[in-house]
Amino acid sequence: MEKVKFIEMKDGDKEDYELLAKFEDKYIEGTADRVIRILKSLESSLGGYKVSRLEHSLQAASRALRDQAEEEMVVAALLHDIGDEIAPLNHSEISAAVLRPFVSEKTHWIVQKHGLFQSYYFNHHYGHDRNLRDKYKDHPFFENTLNFCSRWDQNSFDPNYDTIDLKEFIPMVYRIFKREPHKHVYLGL
Ligand SMILES: [Fe+2]
Ligand SMILES: [Fe+2]
Known about the structure:
It is a single chain. The protein contains nine helices and no strands. With 189 residues, it is mostly helical. The protein has one domain (10-186): Orthogonal Bundle (Hypothetical protein af1432), CATH 1.10.3210. The longest helix has 16 residues, at 14-29. The protein binds fe (ii) ion (2 copies). One fe (ii) ion (FE2) binds next to helix 5 and helix 6.
């Protein structure tokens, strides 16, 4: 396999970085495959609920689809908990970051904040403030995030729900991750 000449990045030349760009483009093309693999792994994560994290994710996406949400929102509902696997304490931020180059600012914000909005349903049982979401009450996406949680997320723990199969959602995931990524996200503009 072709490799760069440098051992420290500061010594790399144009030829080295052009070579790396070729590898990176190929790797980026595989993002959807890797995301789907992580989604499938949620079958065995976090016990205690009546359904697996994967089933929960599929239910949330099924509800979004049945509510005629736009495709990127359905995919966001499907992937909103993928961060659970490696960041159980701040999973929303990971899930949102994965989607961010390919979705609108609104979709990104909803996924990023859903964990805090979702805490409305349980924080008081642990002696914490359930209304933390209120600090965003004047934010333009406040209602959207509240609806995401109330209509698709908090209610998707039902073992008897008529969940749509993962294979129905896979082409949607590929379509979203095939989009031209937002330059401002990956260049940090
Ligand atoms: Fe979540
Ligand atoms: Fe969730």
